[in-house]
């Protein structure tokens, strides 16, 4: 069981919206806060990325950068260039046709792709902590990026049936590359985080077992036996890597799966409880309320309201209106 694949299956990119932009000469674009993460890929040319409180960074063809939700930032032809805004309505019309948003003082030299997407808010996982701060990957360090960016540009140039699904999948592929780059960059000693967990084969094997069969009645002892290590070894190394014992991680992942079933299906609580490894609905309800703050039935109602509100608020324009 690939833990990263499982987490992305449950919480990966949803409702991805991509915009192709072409710019030349002197240009700059300041991007407002947005409900979801922002992913920028440079298809041709180069651009400078400005993030509030940080020094500008140059991005070259093939580079990809991911910014967490709420990151105020801008892109420009050079540091210090005034960054204006873009007409949201006009940008949407151009995007829907599969054309590029063009701006600047001369013919385009730079083409970039901006993707905004959502991740399922009901899923909580230390894997996603890796993407909790700006992450960038250079094409010089990852030759596979160019192919993904090319596919993304092609899909956005011909929007049609299945485009959102295709862009979601390509966005997930870019997220995998970004996470891998973080793991490679931190190949030394780790603190308590998922990055550290992937570096420890004992913890990695335990995580794979949990994700492969979260409904099993795992204990630290049975999990240690399954991966052929002593209980003491697992009890020591799992919390060192992740900051929590195996049972706590298991309970949190089970609640992720349960939360999605409660929101997305009409299954009775008893069925949801059994599906995630609880022999009684009472034990499940008690655990769910402890970890999620409300009883399963209350959570189901609130999660569906949040889902409806999120769909209404995710308008699909990454640009601020003039």
TrEMBL record:
Q: Which Pfam families match?
A: Cupin_6, HTH_18
Q: Does the keyword Transcription regulation apply?
A: yes
Q: Does the keyword rRNA-binding apply?
A: no
Q: Which UniProt keywords apply?
A: Cytoplasm, DNA-binding, Transcription, Transcription regulation
Q: Where is the HTH araC/xylS-type domain?
A: 204-302
- InterPro entries on file: AraC_lig (IPR032783), AraC_XylS_family_regulators (IPR050204), Homeodomain-like_sf (IPR009057), HTH-like (IPR037923), HTH_AraC (IPR018060), Tscrpt_reg_AraC-type_HTH (IPR020449)
Taking the record's annotation, the residue ranges forming a coiled coil are: none
Query: The organism sits in which domain of life?
Result: Bacteria
Q: What does UniProt give as the signal peptide span?
A: none
Q: Which GO terms describe its molecular function?
A: DNA-binding transcription factor activity; sequence-specific DNA binding
* Record's protein name: Helix-turn-helix domain-containing protein
Q: Could you tell me which species this protein originates from?
A: Lentzea xinjiangensis
Q: What is the lineage of its organism?
A: Bacteria, Bacillati, Actinomycetota, Actinomycetes, Pseudonocardiales
């Amino acid at each position: 069981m690939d833990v990263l694949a499982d987490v992305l299956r449950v919480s990966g990119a949803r409702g991805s919206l991509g915009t192709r932009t072409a710019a030349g000469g002197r240009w700059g674009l300041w991007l407002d806060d947005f409900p979801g993460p922002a992913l920028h890929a440079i298809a041709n040319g180069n651009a400078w990325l400005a993030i509030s409180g940080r020094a500008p960074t140059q991005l070259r063809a093939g580079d990809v950068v991911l910014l967490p939700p709420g990151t105020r930032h801008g892109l420009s032809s050079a540091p210090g260039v005034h960054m204006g805004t873009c007409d949201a309505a006009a940008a949407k019309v151009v995007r829907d046709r599969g054309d590029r948003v063009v701006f600047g003082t001369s013919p385009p030299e730079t083409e970039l792709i901006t993707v905004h997407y959502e991740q399922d808010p009901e899923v909580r996982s230390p894997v996603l902590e890796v993407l909790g701060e700006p992450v960038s990957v250079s094409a010089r360090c990852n030759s596979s990026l160019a192919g993904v960016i090319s596919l993304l540009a092609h899909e956005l140039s011909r929007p049609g049936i299945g485009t959102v699904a295709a862009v979601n999948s390509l966005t997930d592929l870019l997220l995998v590359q970004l996470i891998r780059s973080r793991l490679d960059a931190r190949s030394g000693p780790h603190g308590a985080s998922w990055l550290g967990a992937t570096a420890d084969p004992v913890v990695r094997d335990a995580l794979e077992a949990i994700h492969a069969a979260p409904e099993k009645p795992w204990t630290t002892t049975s999990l240690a036996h399954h991966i052929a290590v002593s209980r003491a070894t697992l009890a020591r190394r799992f919390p060192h890597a992740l900051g929590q014992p195996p049972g706590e991680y298991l309970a949190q992942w089970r609640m992720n799966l349960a939360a999605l079933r409660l929101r997305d299906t009409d299954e009775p609580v008893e069925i949801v409880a059994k599906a995630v490894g609880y022999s009684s609905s009472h034990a499940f309800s008690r655990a769910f309320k402890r970890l999620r703050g409300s009883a399963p039935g209350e959570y189901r109602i609130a999660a569906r309201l949040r889902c409806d509100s999120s769909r209404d608020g995710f308008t699909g324009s990454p640009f601020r209106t003039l």
